[in-house]
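Q: I have 126 residues here and want to know how they pack in 3D. Can you give me a structure?
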Amino acid sequence: MADVLIIDDDIELREALAEALAMEGFHVATVGNGREGLDYLQEAIPPHVILVDLIMPIMNGWQFCEAKNADPRLAPIPVVALSAAAKKDPTSPYFLDVEDVVVKPVMMDELLSVVRRFVPSTLPSR
């Protein structure tokens, strides 16, 4: 079971984030776009939190969030956007209804702090 699902088309960033989170004791799964993310969620035990990029091929972050939230089983899973574009302000054209936004380039301390808010505290922390 993954604690964190990372959805990002940038394979180098995706792998770097996964490695950093794994070193902190998190179980991480990764996929390359929103469609793969939805497929993963249909087959796996839901993660504690999803980290999603916005600009991706096949299915972008906005489309992924819309589809995820339309599924009653998946809707409760918290989502954190990894983007410089996402805004939590509903009046913004870049509005995304997510629990938090981590601005790229990602600062690992900030990301770890955000992820720890959603993953049970039974995980070891460094």
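Q: Anything worth noting?
A: The first strand starts at residue 4 and ends at 7. Helices lie at 11-23, 34-43, 61-70, 108-118.
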